[in-house]
Amino acid sequence: MFRDLSEKLSTALLRILGVLNMLAFTNFILALLGATQVRAEDHCRGRNLLSDFAANQPERLAAIEKEAAQVANGSGLLWKVEAKGVAPSWLFGTMHVTDPRVVDLPKAAKVAFEEARTVVIETTDVLDRRAMMAAMAQHPELMMFTGAEKLTDHLDERQQAELKAALEERGIPLQTVIKMKPWMLVSLASLPECETQRQEQGALVLDALLAADAAKDGKAVAGLESMVDQFEAMASLPMAFHIEGLLSTLALGDRIDDVIETMIVLYTEGETGMFWPMMGAVMPGEDTEAGYAAFEEVMVTRRNHSMAKAAADFIDEGGAFIAVGALHLPGEEGLVALLQERGYTVSPVEMR
């Protein structure tokens, strides 16, 4: 049973984490579908999959932990960034969900946020639904099939039936989304219904909440990239990769809750270096490994370099609180290392 779950996760976990690392996607898909098509849930029901590893394959968990220990800057969510002659800035890893454990900032992060003059998130486009819709109008090919092409053109009969059934389970008729690119639908399918319900009811994901609180306090609010940047990166990956990701994510069903719970646990513990080893541990085939590498290069590494360049302008001004998806922090080409390469002193801050 555990092996079956691992094989399903191998093709879905990467896409799920990718969407959690993309601030624009969930807000955008909810804007398109509206608040009436997603079934409501009263509570989240996921369990931590690391507990399954511990109980059933402790050697695999040990391997994950060993690999994570070798990840540069793989522990910690809050980093102090110092530049000569200006007030210090702060780099904070986020998770793009509304879960109370995530949006309730630890004391050290609250203090850093309060001290900052400018709050910077990945993209401010998500704060304005009209801006999102305008971006779609300018670049429809990034999110929708244009002309006669449609989603089902890329699926055989069996896959179409699976997709139709999975969407109907979520209260979404296939015909209403048949023109959407698969990565748009993954953004909907990869969140537990309790999370989607909270967002529909107006709860803000952590990044958007930080931006809203900053604006309320009279702080400047800025972004490191645009929503179009995020969509272009996702759209550049092969269509087959996205189709496989959509079908495997939908096939997980309620197991999505377990995946998200695992990621939230890792996040709240500040174990950002565990994210990639966890994914690698459940990838059984070379084809999946190739997709993993392509995803990491396009969706994480390249964006890290562009975000580091953009963040430098705010750090040089001093007093910035820079909040980005936690997946961008660790590694030799993570934001912590890239900012250090630019000559800044970047130090971890104890959160507990």
Offer a few descriptive terms:
six-stranded mixed sheet, 57% helix, globular
User: Which sequence of SSEs, written as H and E, runs from N to C?
Assistant: HHHHEEHHEHHHHHHEHHHHHEHE
Shape: globular
Query: In this structure, how is the largest beta sheet organized?
Result: 6 strands, mixed
Overall helicity: 55-70%
Strand content: 5-15%
Uncertain residue segments: 1-12, 35-42
If strands are numbered along the chain, what order do they take across the biggest sheet?
4-3-5-2-1-6
Individual helix count: 18
Number of strands: 6
Mean pLDDT: 83
Backbone structural class: alpha/beta
Count up the domains: 1
Taking all Cα atoms into account, the compactness measure Rg is 20 Å
Kindly report how far apart the N and C termini lie.
37 Å
Give a short overview.
The chain has 352 residues and is an alpha/beta fold.
